[in-house]
Amino acid sequence: TVLAIRNLNLRKSVEFLPRVFRVFAKHKISINRVVSSSEVSISLVINTKLLQREDTQLLIDELLSFTEVDVEGGRSVLSIITDPDEHLLTTSQIFDLLSDAKLQVHAIFQSPGRRNVGMVVNQGDVPKCVRLLHSAFFEVRAFYSPYLRK
Fold first, then answer.
1. What superfamily would CATH give domain 75-139?
2. Packing angle, helices 13-26 and 54-64, rounded to 10
3. Which candidate, 14, 49, 60, 113, has a CA 20 to 30 Å from the CA of 141?
């Protein structure tokens, strides 16, 4: 599940991110992945099972006291480990494949070392995404593929 959180008070943007993280710590809710952040907004992923816990609703209620919160269910994080030397090529291939297959990517992110490329996709599309990427990078790589030409 993705939580998109936006600051309601732009004059207090310096306090925004620390305050959000303090609320998560207070309620002992772990964040699986920070997808994007700025001084006035943050999108993060939490385990969907946490939404059924009462303390998670308390967390959301507390966040709503100083932010806007959109809960985007039905999403999954898909991560791909890449060769840092081929990172740009691999990343473009991944998104070309998914785009050609008409699979929607809601957010993308990468690790600082450029080894891990991640994306948020519709939960129902995960099996298709995995099959497509596995086929392109492991089954077809030794043969011709327009996406894997160097």
1. ACT domain (3.30.70.260)
2. 160
3. 113
Mind listing the pLDDT tens digit for each residue in 116-130?
Answer: 888 999 999 999 999
The span from the CA of 62 to the CA of 117, in Å, is: 32
Using DSSP bridges, classify how beta strands 67-72 and 33-37 pair: parallel, antiparallel or unpaired: unpaired
Angle at 107 between CA 136 and CA 56, to 5 degrees: 125
The DSSP line for 16-46 is: HHHHHHHHHHHTT---SEEEEE-SSEEEEE-
What pTM does this model have?
Answer: 0.76
Q: Which residue has the tokens 């480990």?
A: 81
Task: Give residues with Cβ within 8 angstroms of 90, minimum separation 6.
Answer: 80, 82, 83, 117
Which CATH fold topology does 2-72 show? Alpha-Beta Plaits (3.30.70)
Helix (H, G, I), strand (E, B), or coil: what is residue 52? helix
